[in-house]
């Protein structure tokens, strides 16, 4: 199993932005020293919720200070980016990191971010599906051209010329059924967040695997789970930090994406989020949803984390992890401590595991 870190760039520490940005990015450097396989970063704009406007740029800095760790924006949000520039920047960073780059793509869900890019949430499905093909073809062929509804690009050769790109190096966020279908259709590894009870996600995951196999004649690769981690030896500290920082993170997510607001109800491709809002209401409000959310993520002592992983694997089959250790304003000393503890006590067991064919 491959295990990575996922940097969320959430500044709830009250630190000056430059200092917070440097300290968050430094975690990617520490991750290589601790033996993680991946350093992944979000793309988010304009708020404390998350502020990393260009993960490909930030990963260039990491590339210069590392040798082996794989790099992955998780994810470049396609409705907010020009596909031609994404291909160029991806080829540039891939040259600088000598082929250690994987491209994570997503379509976004926060209308406050869409607004500033003059994009509408309602169009994100179409824009993503069109842009992702332009980008992947551009990386595979070294030529970008498009004459679609959203992008018209004359035939253009990319310099530096991209090398060694296949769909195996592209991954796609797929939390919604429509995205799971596109990921399977395009032959892409899927990225998911932990969201409460995994049994509820199984129909979608099975559909993704069946469609992938039917379309590409081979089993789908293990999907990647982005987990929010709380990992300490003391159970008391786990509870204290979960109640303080994980709870803060949960409220930030619900607020940033406005999960409880009505606007998702008129957006069919975001039905998953409309349902989440209603379900939370119906099942006793945010507190119940919060408990489910805690249950779905890997939180506990190293021993408890590994037990939770085995239970999850028995349900969902093979998967990989990119772990979020820095969130909710947790001091960087504690972030470093839990990252190191996880790397020393849990990661070796995860990496030693033989794959179970799902
Ligand atoms: C692993 C993972 C990484 C994500 N990274 C980002 C990100 O960097 N920026 C962002 O706006 N949304 C991010 N999202 C949220 C997606 O944009 C959101 O889930 C959106 O609805 C896309 O998923 P969907 O197409 O499956 O609905 C991420 C989601 C997952 C599961």
UniProtKB/TrEMBL annotation:
What is a GO molecular function of this protein?
Answer: oxidoreductase activity, acting on paired donors, with incorporation or reduction of molecular oxygen
Supply the InterPro entries for this chain: Bact_Lucif_Oxidored, Luciferase-like_dom, Luciferase-like_sf
Keywords linked to the UniProt accession: Monooxygenase, Oxidoreductase
Question: Any one cellular component term from GO for this entry?
Answer: cytosol
Instruction: Kindly name one Pfam family recorded for this protein.
Output: Bac_luciferase
Which residues are in the Luciferase-like domain? 1-309
Q: What's this protein's name? A: Flavin-dependent oxidoreductase
Q: Which organism is it from?
A: Novosphingobium endophyticum
